[in-house]
Amino acid sequence: MSGFRVVDSVSRPLRLFCDNSAIIFMAKNNKSGSRSKHIDIKYLAIQERVKENKVVIEHVNIELTIANPLTKGMPPKIFRNHIVSMGLGSIMSPHFTCTYI
Fold first, then answer.
1. Would you say which domain of life the source belongs to (predicted)?
2. Which of 19, 75, 86, 91 has its CB 3.0 to 4.6 Å from that of 62, i.e. a possible disulfide?
3. What is the Cα–Cα distance from 18 to 37, expressed in whole angstroms?
4. What does the alpha-carbon distance between residue 9 and residue 38 come to, in Å, rounded to a whole number?
5. What number of CA atoms fall less than 13 Å from residue 83's CA on the CB side?
6. Cβ neighbours of residue 99 under 8 Å, at least 6 residues apart?
């Protein structure tokens, strides 16, 4: 785990959550094809850690991924729910509105 620079207090194996089923499949299965031959070496390192049982990758529903408003566009209601989940609900006005560009 020293390669990840993770503190010793983190429980083992390290649990990573991902909303991309294809990435989880590639990490858990040592298969490569013509479409995956140019994968960056850091992803191969994750694959090795999964094989060594130092890292476990678990699927999480895309709607439960709290950080999504920081990386993806989404409908206002789901956006508000995520903002509250991040603990940022108190900074939002009760009359907060989202506008689409």
1. Eukaryota
2. 19
3. 21
4. 35
5. 17
6. none
Strands annotated E in the chain: 14-18, 55-59
Is the overall model pTM greater than 0.70, yes or no?
no
Distance CA 21, CA 58 (A): 9
Question: How confident is the model over 69-74, as a mean pLDDT?
Answer: 80
1-25 per-position pLDDT tens digit: 556 665 666 678 888 888 888 888 8
Give, to the nearest 10 degrees, the angle between helix 41-51 and helix 21-28: 60
The C-alpha atoms of residue 48 and residue 36 are separated, in whole angstroms, by 16
| Residue 97: both structure tokens together | 């509105």
